Structure formats: C-alpha cells, structure tokens
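Checklist before submission:
- one chain only
- standard amino acids only
- sequence pasted in full

Submission:
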Amino acid sequence: MTSSRRMAAAMSALAVVASGLVSAAVIGVTPARADHCDPAEQASQGQQQNNNRQRRNGDQQGQDDQQDQNQDQGQDQGQNQDQGQNQDQGQNQDQGQNQDQGQNQDQGQNQDQGQGQNDQQNGDQQQGGDQQQGQDQRQNGDQQAPQGGAKLLDPAASPEAAPEDEQTVSTFSRRRNNPTKTATPVPTRNNPGGGNASPTASPTNDPDEAACADLGPFPEDFVDIRQVAPQRVNARFNRNGSRGTFVSQCGRNENKHNNPDNFIVAPGVSNGAHHLHDYVGNLSTDAFSTDESLAGAGTTCRLGDKSTYFWPVLRNRKVDANDNDPDGNVGQQLTARAVQLQFRGNASSRVVAMPRFLRIITGDAKAATNGPANAKAAWSCTGFQNRITTDKYPLCPRGSLVLRILDFPSCWDGQNTDSANHRTHVVFPDQNGACPQGTRAVPQLRMTLAYSVPQGPSYALDAFPEQKHNPVTDHADFANVMPDRLMQTVVSCINRGRRC
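Returned file contents:
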C-alpha cells in the first residue's frame, strides 16, 4: 500500500516537472533581435511582442490546470481510502484500499499521458502553423516582386532592361563620440502624407529599441510604387518652347568625394549640413569653397565642366555601419548605380545662358518641420517613371531601381548669382512651364539618381536629426562653374531641339 502511494505521487510529480520544462522552453524561445536600426523591424516588433505574451499566458494557464488536476487526484485518493476503511475491516479494508489506489494510479497515469499527448499535439499544430505562415509570407513576397525594371532615368521615357549587378558599395565608417542614449517614446506620424512629424507617446523598455525608435524613417513612410497613381510628369511644350537637352557626364562619385558640408547654405561651417553629401564634378568642394577655389580645381565631368553637383547620401539600414553618428545617420552608404545630370529647356520660351558661379538649391532639407512650401522631393522606380511619390519612399518590384528625381528652379532674375535665402534669385516656372514676369528661363537642371536598395522598407535618406529621415526632405545643390563656351553649347543644343 505504501509503495503504491509513493508510485502515484512520483508519477504526479514527474508530470508537473515535465509540464514546467515544456513551458520554460517555449517561453525561452524568442527570435534574435537585430542590433541595427532597420525600419522594417519596427513593423514586426509589436506583433512579435503580442505573440510572446500570448505564449506566456498560455503556458501559465497550462501549469495552473496541471496543479489543479494533481490536487483533485490527491483529494480523490483520500476520499476513496476513507470509503474503503468504512466499508470493511481487516482484509476487506486492505483490499478496498489497494483497489482504490490502483484505480487512482491508473487514472493519474492516463491523465498525465493524455495531457502530454495534448501538449505535444498543440506544439505540433503551433509549429505547423508557424511554418505555414512563413511559407505564405515568402510566397506573397515573391508574388509582389515580379522580375523586371528599367535602366532609363528620364521619367518621360519608356522602360528598358534593368542594369547588371551593382558595383561594390562603400561604407562611411566615420566614428564619433556619441552620448549614451536613454529610452524615449516611439513616435509615429499622425499625418504621413503631409510630411510633418507628430510624435505620439508609446514607451519602450528595450534600450536597443529605444536607441533606434526615434530615428525614423517609419513604416508609414514607404509605399508600393504600384499603388501610386500615374500622372503627367512634364509640362506641355508650345511652339515657342525649347525642347532640346544637354547631359553633363560627371560619374557617380566613384572617387568617394563625401563630406557633411554645404558651402552655399552654411559657408565656412564644417558639418554645417549634419548629414553626408555625395559630390560629383568639382573635386575641391567643401565648406570653405569660393568662386576662386572652384575655378582652380579639377573635375570629374567631361568637357571641362567644373560645376559642383551634390545631394544627401542614401543608406542601407539593414547593415550596421556608422552607428555612432551623433546625427543618427546610420547604415551603409549606397553609391548610386547611375547618375544623370540633364539640362532641359522651357515649355514656353527659349533659354538664356546661366551666369558663371550661379548657385541654385532645390527642395528643403527641413521640410518635415518647415512644411511642404519649398519641398521638391520626387521618388519613383525604373519601369514606373510616370508614378511619382513626393512624401514616401517607394517600394520597387524586384529588379527595379529606386529613383530620386531632383528638378531645379530655372527662372533667373537676370542679375544675381545668389540671394539671402538662396531661392528668390532663381524660381520655378508655373504649372504651364512659363517663367514669371521679370525672370528669364535658363537651362533647367534635372538630377536623376538610381539606386539598388534592400528589399522592403529598409533604406533611408541622410537628414538633420529632427527630420526623422522623412523622404520629403530630399534636396540637392548646384553651382555653375562651366566655361562660358560650354554654357553656350548647352544653350544652343536646348534651343535648337537637339540632344547633346
């Protein structure tokens, strides 16, 4: 009798221990969290946390149910033993106890085995569901990313085949002392289409997550290019318009000319831009550039074009690089696959020559907080050049490249090479392509930059820290240092309707 009781107690204890081990194993299995600031991680972290909480609650409920069953079994044993003792004395009492204990032992074993089988079946079902969900997601991703794309950079042109594999990209590994970051609320944009960031409190206790949570961009800053409505890209030309084009070939910044300066907006200030710029053309451009220094420097452009062309870099946020940058510009720097610097005509008039050392900017590096008045960002994908998004990063189908299209103002006041706000001396044409009264049309610069980026919402533009890497802040700068003879060639090509 004593051995039977001990055996029943041992079996119940083993069932409790086994249940605890299974629960501990389930609770302990969590996916490894990447230590970079990938925007795509933000969208999945909330769902993962909910799944973990549901699993922990389910495991705790299973433990409580097992303890309750063991207590009920012990009470049944005691009640059955008392009944056996009351019915008979001596041998009948021993037989009643033995029968009750044997029955209870069998019942306990059956219950433990049945519960173990149920736990195993539930685990198998959960594992099968996770595998099926992963397969469905991969299949959906493949369906949403058909092969194709185009190399052409002119948004008005038709698609062509995609270029070959990307050349080696560089990593901007400048490291700076970065103060320790503390946990901060996770902001989201209440108005993702308007460009202004409106943070809402959503506290986090994960220091790694907190370090990345307020950097931006956010999942709502991305859009599938196929969900963007087609639109007319260029104004209609009339009979007086100038239809020609001239392309200055200056490379893709293969020589890695980068710095966080801007001699137009912040002359003489190192790191005046607080984000890294790509430069092509003039080899000497930095915070201390002057007309004289630019005129005396070399160039990456053909035909002696010493102009300077520059724009903020784009980064792969799936790669841990530059992670100590105090301005939050983290990730691996991406070099453009192609750069086209095209000078275009005016829809309603002929163009005149730009004055040498004319300085022009386009877009607003602080549009996320300033508002959209001066924003000129335009994003697209090769093969979808008639679909333009101004406040979202495009998600392109597999084989398609991300495009940044940066049009510059082209109506010059006829007198000044710069102005106090760097805008009033050269303004944009109206919606019909005509220049305002009192201004003259000059060749309009259109920069088109093509990038191979990681799949999904996992890339970002360098920006001022408070701009949260909002795509509406895309911008670029230009200073004309063409020889006068080359500028006359540009004007002639455009006014005669030639492609040079």
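Reviewer check: The two ends are 104 Å apart (CA to CA).
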